[in-house]
User: What shape does this take?
Amino acid sequence: MEVQVSIIIVNYNCELHTCNCIDSIYKYTRDISFEIIVVDNASMSNSLKTISERFPEVKIIYNQENKGFGYANNIGVKHASGKYLFFLNPDTLILNTAVYDFYDFLLNSANDVVCCGGNLIKVDGSPNKSYGNFPTVLQQFSDIGFKIFYKKLHSEKLAMGKFCDFNDIRLVNYLVGAAFFIEKQVFRNIGGFDEQFFLYYEETDLFFRLNKAGYKSYLLPKVKIIHLEGVTTESKEPFNYRMWEMMEKSRYYYFAKNKSHFASFCVRLVQMFSLILLYSFGKTPVNLKRAIKITLRA
Assistant: This one.
Protein backbone atom coordinates (compact mmCIF):
# COMPACT_ATOMS: atom_id res chain seq x y z
CA MET A 1 0.00 0.00 0.00
CA GLU A 2 1.25 3.48 -0.87
CA VAL A 3 2.38 5.47 2.15
CA GLN A 4 0.37 8.66 2.53
CA VAL A 5 2.06 10.15 5.60
CA SER A 6 5.61 9.90 6.92
CA ILE A 7 5.82 10.66 10.64
CA ILE A 8 9.29 11.86 11.64
CA ILE A 9 10.50 11.84 15.25
CA VAL A 10 13.98 12.99 16.31
CA ASN A 11 15.21 11.06 19.34
CA TYR A 12 18.01 12.15 21.66
CA ASN A 13 18.40 10.22 24.91
CA CYS A 14 14.67 10.05 25.51
CA GLU A 15 13.64 6.53 24.52
CA LEU A 16 10.77 6.32 27.04
CA HIS A 17 9.11 9.46 25.68
CA THR A 18 9.73 8.38 22.09
CA CYS A 19 8.15 4.99 22.78
CA ASN A 20 5.14 6.62 24.44
CA CYS A 21 4.77 8.95 21.45
CA ILE A 22 4.86 6.01 19.03
CA ASP A 23 2.33 4.12 21.17
CA SER A 24 -0.06 7.07 20.94
CA ILE A 25 0.29 7.20 17.15
CA TYR A 26 -0.65 3.54 16.77
CA LYS A 27 -3.49 3.90 19.25
CA TYR A 28 -5.28 6.74 17.47
CA THR A 29 -4.29 6.59 13.80
CA ARG A 30 -6.91 4.99 11.56
CA ASP A 31 -8.02 4.98 7.91
CA ILE A 32 -4.68 6.15 6.54
CA SER A 33 -1.41 4.50 5.53
CA PHE A 34 1.62 5.83 7.37
CA GLU A 35 5.18 5.08 8.32
CA ILE A 36 7.15 6.16 11.36
CA ILE A 37 10.76 7.25 10.99
CA VAL A 38 12.87 7.77 14.11
CA VAL A 39 16.10 9.69 13.60
CA ASP A 40 18.46 9.12 16.51
CA ASN A 41 20.81 12.04 17.09
CA ALA A 42 23.79 10.08 18.45
CA SER A 43 22.10 9.21 21.74
CA MET A 44 24.30 8.03 24.59
CA SER A 45 21.53 5.91 26.10
CA ASN A 46 20.02 2.59 25.04
CA SER A 47 17.44 4.34 22.86
CA LEU A 48 17.86 2.46 19.62
CA LYS A 49 17.73 -1.01 21.15
CA THR A 50 14.60 -0.22 23.17
CA ILE A 51 12.75 1.36 20.25
CA SER A 52 13.72 -1.32 17.72
CA GLU A 53 12.65 -4.13 20.04
CA ARG A 54 9.26 -2.61 20.82
CA PHE A 55 8.55 -1.35 17.31
CA PRO A 56 10.37 -3.49 14.72
CA GLU A 57 8.33 -1.92 11.89
CA VAL A 58 9.62 1.58 12.64
CA LYS A 59 12.43 2.89 10.43
CA ILE A 60 15.41 3.96 12.51
CA ILE A 61 18.07 6.26 11.12
CA TYR A 62 21.42 6.29 12.94
CA ASN A 63 23.18 9.65 13.12
CA GLN A 64 26.77 9.23 14.25
CA GLU A 65 26.93 12.88 15.28
CA ASN A 66 24.37 15.29 16.72
CA LYS A 67 24.25 18.11 14.20
CA GLY A 68 21.01 19.60 15.44
CA PHE A 69 17.26 19.21 15.27
CA GLY A 70 16.78 20.60 11.77
CA TYR A 71 19.58 18.49 10.32
CA ALA A 72 18.10 15.32 11.83
CA ASN A 73 14.63 16.09 10.47
CA ASN A 74 16.09 16.72 7.01
CA ILE A 75 17.74 13.29 7.18
CA GLY A 76 14.37 11.78 8.06
CA VAL A 77 12.74 13.44 5.06
CA LYS A 78 15.31 11.84 2.74
CA HIS A 79 13.99 8.44 3.86
CA ALA A 80 10.31 9.44 3.77
CA SER A 81 7.96 7.75 1.29
CA GLY A 82 4.77 9.69 2.07
CA LYS A 83 3.28 12.61 0.18
CA TYR A 84 2.90 14.39 3.52
CA LEU A 85 5.27 14.82 6.45
CA PHE A 86 4.24 14.94 10.09
CA PHE A 87 7.04 16.29 12.30
CA LEU A 88 6.58 15.22 15.91
CA ASN A 89 8.74 15.87 18.95
CA PRO A 90 9.36 12.80 21.12
CA ASP A 91 7.71 14.62 24.04
CA THR A 92 4.30 14.67 22.34
CA LEU A 93 1.29 12.39 22.65
CA ILE A 94 -1.48 12.06 20.10
CA LEU A 95 -4.92 12.25 21.72
CA ASN A 96 -7.21 11.74 18.74
CA THR A 97 -7.17 11.03 15.00
CA ALA A 98 -4.68 13.84 14.39
CA VAL A 99 -2.84 12.19 11.50
CA TYR A 100 -6.00 11.55 9.49
CA ASP A 101 -7.51 14.95 10.42
CA PHE A 102 -4.45 16.85 9.21
CA TYR A 103 -4.25 14.75 6.04
CA ASP A 104 -7.94 15.24 5.27
CA PHE A 105 -7.69 18.99 5.87
CA LEU A 106 -4.79 19.52 3.46
CA LEU A 107 -6.22 17.13 0.90
CA ASN A 108 -9.40 19.20 0.71
CA SER A 109 -7.81 22.66 0.92
CA ALA A 110 -6.71 25.13 -1.73
CA ASN A 111 -3.33 24.57 -3.39
CA ASP A 112 -1.66 27.34 -1.39
CA VAL A 113 -2.63 25.71 1.94
CA VAL A 114 0.27 23.34 2.57
CA CYS A 115 0.71 23.10 6.32
CA CYS A 116 -1.37 22.64 9.46
CA GLY A 117 -1.02 21.95 13.17
CA GLY A 118 -3.11 21.38 16.24
CA ASN A 119 -3.94 22.64 19.70
CA LEU A 120 -0.98 21.82 21.94
CA ILE A 121 -1.80 21.23 25.59
CA LYS A 122 0.06 20.22 28.74
CA VAL A 123 -0.39 16.83 30.38
CA ASP A 124 -2.94 18.31 32.82
CA GLY A 125 -5.02 19.62 29.93
CA SER A 126 -4.06 23.27 30.34
CA PRO A 127 -3.05 25.17 27.17
CA ASN A 128 0.48 25.10 25.83
CA LYS A 129 2.02 27.34 23.18
CA SER A 130 0.74 26.29 19.76
CA TYR A 131 1.49 29.12 17.31
CA GLY A 132 2.62 32.72 17.08
CA ASN A 133 3.55 35.82 15.12
CA PHE A 134 6.89 36.12 13.38
CA PRO A 135 9.61 37.71 15.56
CA THR A 136 10.29 41.43 15.17
CA VAL A 137 12.55 43.91 16.94
CA LEU A 138 9.45 45.56 18.42
CA GLN A 139 8.28 42.20 19.74
CA GLN A 140 11.66 41.59 21.38
CA PHE A 141 11.55 45.06 22.94
CA SER A 142 7.94 44.58 24.07
CA ASP A 143 8.70 41.31 25.81
CA ILE A 144 11.01 43.09 28.24
CA GLY A 145 7.84 44.42 29.85
CA PHE A 146 6.80 47.36 27.68
CA LYS A 147 3.90 45.31 26.28
CA ILE A 148 1.82 46.41 29.29
CA PHE A 149 1.32 49.74 27.48
CA TYR A 150 -0.20 48.10 24.39
CA LYS A 151 -1.49 44.71 25.51
CA LYS A 152 -4.01 44.23 22.69
CA LEU A 153 -1.52 45.12 19.94
CA HIS A 154 1.07 42.82 21.47
CA SER A 155 -1.33 39.92 21.88
CA GLU A 156 -2.76 40.14 18.37
CA LYS A 157 0.17 41.30 16.23
CA LEU A 158 3.44 40.79 18.09
CA ALA A 159 3.37 37.87 20.54
CA MET A 160 5.36 34.81 19.49
CA GLY A 161 4.30 31.87 21.65
CA LYS A 162 0.50 31.92 21.84
CA PHE A 163 -2.14 29.59 23.25
CA CYS A 164 -5.01 28.31 21.16
CA ASP A 165 -7.99 29.99 22.84
CA PHE A 166 -10.41 29.75 19.90
CA ASN A 167 -12.57 27.06 18.30
CA ASP A 168 -12.47 28.02 14.62
CA ILE A 169 -9.78 26.97 12.15
CA ARG A 170 -7.40 29.91 11.71
CA LEU A 171 -4.64 31.09 9.44
CA VAL A 172 -1.43 31.57 11.46
CA ASN A 173 2.07 32.89 10.86
CA TYR A 174 3.84 29.86 12.26
CA LEU A 175 3.12 26.69 14.22
CA VAL A 176 5.20 25.45 17.13
CA GLY A 177 7.64 22.89 15.75
CA ALA A 178 6.67 20.17 18.25
CA ALA A 179 3.93 18.97 15.89
CA PHE A 180 3.15 20.14 12.38
CA PHE A 181 1.98 18.54 9.14
CA ILE A 182 3.21 19.66 5.70
CA GLU A 183 3.33 18.61 2.05
CA LYS A 184 6.68 16.95 1.40
CA GLN A 185 7.23 18.48 -2.03
CA VAL A 186 6.68 21.99 -0.71
CA PHE A 187 9.00 21.31 2.22
CA ARG A 188 11.68 20.23 -0.24
CA ASN A 189 11.01 23.10 -2.65
CA ILE A 190 11.71 25.73 0.00
CA GLY A 191 14.89 23.96 1.11
CA GLY A 192 13.73 22.12 4.24
CA PHE A 193 15.07 23.14 7.63
CA ASP A 194 18.03 25.52 7.64
CA GLU A 195 20.73 23.43 9.31
CA GLN A 196 22.54 26.52 10.58
CA PHE A 197 19.96 26.47 13.40
CA PHE A 198 21.18 23.79 15.80
CA LEU A 199 18.13 24.17 18.02
CA TYR A 200 15.34 26.79 18.35
CA TYR A 201 13.91 29.09 15.67
CA GLU A 202 14.35 26.49 12.92
CA GLU A 203 10.59 26.06 12.53
CA THR A 204 10.01 29.83 12.72
CA ASP A 205 12.49 30.31 9.89
CA LEU A 206 10.84 27.52 7.89
CA PHE A 207 7.39 29.10 8.23
CA PHE A 208 8.79 32.53 7.39
CA ARG A 209 10.04 31.12 4.09
CA LEU A 210 6.73 29.34 3.49
CA ASN A 211 4.89 32.60 4.05
CA LYS A 212 7.29 34.52 1.81
CA ALA A 213 6.70 31.96 -0.96
CA GLY A 214 2.93 32.55 -0.74
CA TYR A 215 1.95 29.40 1.16
CA LYS A 216 -0.52 29.29 4.05
CA SER A 217 -0.56 27.44 7.37
CA TYR A 218 -3.59 26.76 9.55
CA LEU A 219 -4.24 25.73 13.14
CA LEU A 220 -6.97 23.14 13.77
CA PRO A 221 -8.09 23.70 17.39
CA LYS A 222 -10.12 20.50 17.71
CA VAL A 223 -7.02 18.40 17.11
CA LYS A 224 -5.33 18.22 20.52
CA ILE A 225 -1.79 17.00 21.15
CA ILE A 226 -0.01 16.85 24.49
CA HIS A 227 3.37 18.57 24.47
CA LEU A 228 5.42 17.85 27.59
CA GLU A 229 8.34 20.16 26.68
CA GLY A 230 11.96 20.06 27.68
CA VAL A 231 12.54 16.31 28.05
CA THR A 232 15.70 16.46 25.91
CA THR A 233 17.07 19.68 27.39
CA GLU A 234 17.33 18.87 31.07
CA SER A 235 20.06 20.48 33.15
CA LYS A 236 21.33 20.05 36.70
CA GLU A 237 22.12 23.77 36.89
CA PRO A 238 19.56 26.24 38.30
CA PHE A 239 19.74 27.91 34.88
CA ASN A 240 20.63 26.03 31.70
CA TYR A 241 23.24 28.32 30.15
CA ARG A 242 24.06 25.86 27.36
CA MET A 243 20.51 25.70 26.04
CA TRP A 244 20.05 29.45 26.49
CA GLU A 245 23.20 30.12 24.44
CA MET A 246 21.81 27.90 21.67
CA MET A 247 18.62 29.93 21.71
CA GLU A 248 20.54 33.22 21.60
CA LYS A 249 22.63 32.08 18.62
CA SER A 250 19.52 30.99 16.77
CA ARG A 251 17.70 34.22 17.61
CA TYR A 252 20.44 36.48 16.25
CA TYR A 253 20.94 34.30 13.18
CA TYR A 254 17.19 34.37 12.46
CA PHE A 255 17.12 38.18 12.49
CA ALA A 256 20.33 38.54 10.47
CA LYS A 257 19.02 36.09 7.86
CA ASN A 258 15.37 37.18 7.56
CA LYS A 259 15.51 40.86 8.57
CA SER A 260 18.95 42.45 8.50
CA HIS A 261 22.26 42.45 10.36
CA PHE A 262 21.22 45.78 11.89
CA ALA A 263 18.02 44.19 13.21
CA SER A 264 20.09 41.37 14.69
CA PHE A 265 22.37 43.94 16.35
CA CYS A 266 19.34 45.78 17.78
CA VAL A 267 17.93 42.55 19.21
CA ARG A 268 21.28 41.85 20.87
CA LEU A 269 21.22 45.31 22.48
CA VAL A 270 17.64 44.76 23.65
CA GLN A 271 18.66 41.45 25.21
CA MET A 272 21.55 43.02 27.12
CA PHE A 273 19.28 45.81 28.35
CA SER A 274 16.76 43.19 29.44
CA LEU A 275 19.39 41.23 31.37
CA ILE A 276 20.63 44.32 33.20
CA LEU A 277 17.06 45.40 34.00
CA LEU A 278 15.99 41.98 35.29
CA TYR A 279 19.19 41.58 37.30
CA SER A 280 18.71 44.99 38.90
CA PHE A 281 15.28 43.94 40.18
CA GLY A 282 16.42 40.45 41.19
CA LYS A 283 14.14 38.84 38.62
CA THR A 284 16.64 36.52 36.93
CA PRO A 285 18.68 33.54 38.21
CA VAL A 286 21.53 34.17 35.76
CA ASN A 287 25.00 35.40 36.55
CA LEU A 288 24.94 38.81 34.83
CA LYS A 289 28.59 38.80 33.75
CA ARG A 290 28.29 35.29 32.30
CA ALA A 291 24.99 36.09 30.60
CA ILE A 292 26.34 39.23 28.93
CA LYS A 293 29.39 37.31 27.67
CA ILE A 294 27.06 34.76 26.11
CA THR A 295 24.95 37.51 24.53
CA LEU A 296 28.02 39.15 23.01
CA ARG A 297 29.52 35.96 21.56
CA ALA A 298 26.31 34.19 20.47
